[in-house]
């Protein structure tokens, strides 16, 4: 059968995103540079496929109560300590997220960390360009979208990435606008991280120092995301659906709403609780399955595998042994496509 062609129809030319991606990357100004240029129409590279945007909702129902865990009294009250461990276990298994309050980090430190990030992003672009690179081996760098050349649509955000442990950068390597607070904030977060790892160890019925002794608390990277105003927010996202490529994430957020997590196949809002920090159980910990993989630094060649203490005939290993370097290389190449990188490593 011969199908007649419509000679009057115009054939839309195929969109080649590579030149536009490179042009944007070469500016070294990020999305903040586009805003400063006064754009009113979203560049094509930031427009997400309709099928990804169709699933975005703005839930107003109050059926879910995002878990908030009060850490006050954790060191001095044994009864309170046990209650906190139980809450961490339940939240990690059912949500994979929880907020912590009375965590010991002064509110002034949290506020100054946010202010320092704003100062960095809102300073003269020529100063920021000194830090811009897509070389993720650097300990301090600034970029826009780690998966810029791989994702179906770029996210509307810029990121300052500072690896603060196990080997911290020299102070002069950090941007002057946030240097002092970055160092102070990191010290506080490392202390909180140790507390959280102990709680997670106990929640797994292990010795409180188990995860720390496995070097799970060795690495710390401050990923500082900045989301400037977007001219057409309905066409893009600040961060697409994803899972984190770490053991745990401690998230400091501002007062703006918009953060959501997937719970029972529904998107649930995370309340912007003053002074709270959001804790996210990352890809490298699979509590609900009883199968754990641990991560330290992104270049570590140490082999990690499911913990023998948590395995049994009824609960066999679900992932093959891997190095964090191998895992992160795959994660970056895959990009934020809405799936867990762990699927690639399943047995």
Automatic annotation (TrEMBL):
The keyword Metal-binding applies. The keyword Oxidoreductase applies. Residues 216-347 form the Fe2OG dioxygenase domain. Keywords: Iron, Metal-binding, Oxidoreductase, Vitamin C. PROSITE patterns: FE2OG_OXY. Belongs to the iron/ascorbate-dependent oxidoreductase family. This is Fe2OG dioxygenase domain-containing protein. InterPro entries: DIOX_N, IPNS-like_FE2OG_OXY, IPNS-like_sf, Oxoglu/Fe-dep_dioxygenase_dom. The lineage of its organism: Eukaryota, Viridiplantae, Streptophyta, Embryophyta, Tracheophyta. One of its GO terms (molecular function) is metal ion binding. It comes from Buddleja alternifolia. GO terms for biological process: coumarin biosynthetic process; response to molecule of fungal origin.
């Amino acid at each position: 059968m011969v199908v007649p062609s419509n000679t009057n129809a115009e054939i839309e030319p195929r969109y080649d995103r590579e030149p536009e991606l490179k042009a944007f990357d070469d500016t070294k100004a990020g999305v903040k540079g586009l805003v400063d240029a006064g754009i009113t129409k979203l560049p094509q590279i930031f427009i997400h496929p309709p099928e990804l945007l169709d699933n975005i909702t703005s839930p107003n129902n109050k059926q879910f109560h995002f878990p908030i865990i009060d850490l006050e009294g954790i060191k001095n009250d044994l009864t309170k300590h046990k209650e906190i461990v139980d809450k961490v276990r339940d939240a990690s298994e059912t949500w994979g997220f929880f907020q912590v309050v009375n965590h010991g980090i002064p509110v002034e430190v949290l506020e100054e960390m946010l202010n320092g990030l704003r100062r960095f992003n809102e300073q003269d672009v020529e100063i920021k360009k000194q830090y811009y690179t897509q070389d993720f081996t650097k300990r301090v760098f600034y970029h826009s979208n780690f998966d810029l050349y791989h994702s179906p649509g770029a996210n509307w955000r810029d990121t300052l990435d500072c690896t603060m442990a196990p080997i911290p950068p020299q102070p002069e390597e950090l941007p002057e606008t946030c240097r002092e607070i970055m160092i102070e904030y990191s010290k506080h977060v490392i202390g909180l991280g140790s507390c959280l790892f102990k709680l997670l160890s106990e929640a797994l019925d292990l010795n409180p120092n188990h995860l720390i002794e496995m070097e799970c608390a060795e690495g710390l990277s401050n990923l500082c995301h900045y989301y400037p105003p977007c001219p057409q927010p309905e066409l893009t996202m600040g961060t697409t659906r994803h899972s984190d490529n770490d053991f745990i994430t401690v998230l400091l957020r501002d007062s703006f709403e918009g953060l959501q997590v997937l719970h029972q196949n529904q998107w649930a809002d995370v309340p912007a609780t003053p002074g709270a920090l959001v804790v996210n159980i990352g890809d490298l910990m699979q509590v609900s399955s009883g199968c754990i993989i641990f991560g330290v630094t992104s270049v570590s060649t140490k082999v990690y595998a499911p913990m023998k203490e948590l395995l049994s005939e009824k609960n066999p290993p679900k992932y093959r042994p891997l190095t964090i370097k191998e895992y992160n290389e795959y994660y970056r190449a895959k990009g934020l496509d809405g799936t867990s990188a762990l699927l690639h490593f399943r047995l």
